[in-house]
Amino acid sequence: MMDMQVVIRVLAAAVGTLGFGVLFNIRGKKLLVGALGGMFAWLLFELLGGVVANEPIRYFVVSAAASVYAEIFARVMKTPRTTFWIVNLIPLIPGGSLYYTMSSAVGNDFELFMQRGVYTLELAAALSLGIVTVAALSRLIKKSRTAKTGK
Amino acid sequence: MVVFFGRQYYGGENQMTQELLRCIVELCEQMVCSGAEVYRVEDSIERMCTGYGAVRVDAYVTTSNIVVTAEMEDGREFTHTRRIKSSSVNIEKLHRLNALARQITATTPTSEEFRSKLEQAERVRTYSFWEQIVFYAVIAGSFTVFFGSRSLRETAASFLIGGVVGFLVLKAEKHSVNKMMVRFFCSAVFSTLAFMCLHFGLVDSVDNIIIGNIMSLIPGVGFTNALRDLFAGDTMTGILRAIEAILLASCMVLGYIAIAYIYGGLAV
Fold first, then answer.
1. Distance from CA of A148 to the nearest CA of B (A)
2. Nearest residue in A to B127, CA atom
3. Contacts for B22-25 with beta carbons within 8 Å, 24 or more apart?
4. Does A132 score more than 90 pLDDT?
5. How confident is the prediction for chain B on average, in pLDDT?
């Protein structure tokens, strides 16, 4: 049975993603698909919680999965991949972690600051690695496809 | 028929002219402005020029300029340069421009047709000023909940502060104020408002209010695009975008730290 807290977080992620979709002027069905992408990304993150305890590794897996989602729907809906790519990953942005790093900097707690700062960077790196892996793979697939059909 | 990068293009009746190249560059400028990845824009330029009969196309695109030279079969060369100044993500516009670029490559219309189609594609609906402010507020509110706040007051405070931040960001965008200044100033404003709420006992903690508002200002898109450009082999643009994102994030952090120090000094 799913925890109520998890449900709240997943819904909040969906609404937040939707908000960004509006600011980026995504319209119609694409807005819905984008918001759902953000929601699924966070849902996956929560579900993986039981399997992998390490957060950066979960970040990597989820960001790769969200990127694949973006690739697939960009093809299905015939739109530039940027459309879904920029909104799907929004719940994963380590804003909370960044804030606690800042607040420990203000609190003059150097050790805690370093610890949290490194953790924030770890999360950001894991997130980027997921994006980059899928981007590289998709280029590879595209290239091998054009190499076959181009001749 | 032209073979280009292993693909075949059937050039239409219309051959390249300076006016057509200007249209192509204008289309691509708009794409960059709306948030396209630069390697895709370079790709679009090459395809369109090839469609108009160019045998060699050299396009160099970064987030701040476009340089294109197209060489024709008879040795004539067309070149055009553009400096790109402002940019704001506009996905609907990008979607339309992208479709238009494909259509142009396939049909190679005259420059008059090209221009009218371009104008049509640029006329996209955007959400109104107030709608956008509401969504800034919604983003701040929902991420306050997302990051663990379960208090209605905190969420409401975050929602309202988010609206104020949205108002400032949009006004600043209109008058094209430097982005870094905007981040610094907005971050200072939301921190001040959050600490005021705390001071007057409206909320128990500022943490989640500030996190919610950080989320709406964080340059996540810039960073994502930077990575993708880097990996697509566009080192220059990737670095430019990454540095921009890091600077913007730092400005935002500084805005908060400045206010937190002042408040700490006042409170103690």
1. 10
2. A25
3. B22/B80, B23/B111, B23/B114, B23/B115, B23/B118, B24/B48, B24/B49, B24/B68, B24/B104, B25/B66, B25/B68, B25/B80, B25/B82
4. no
5. 87
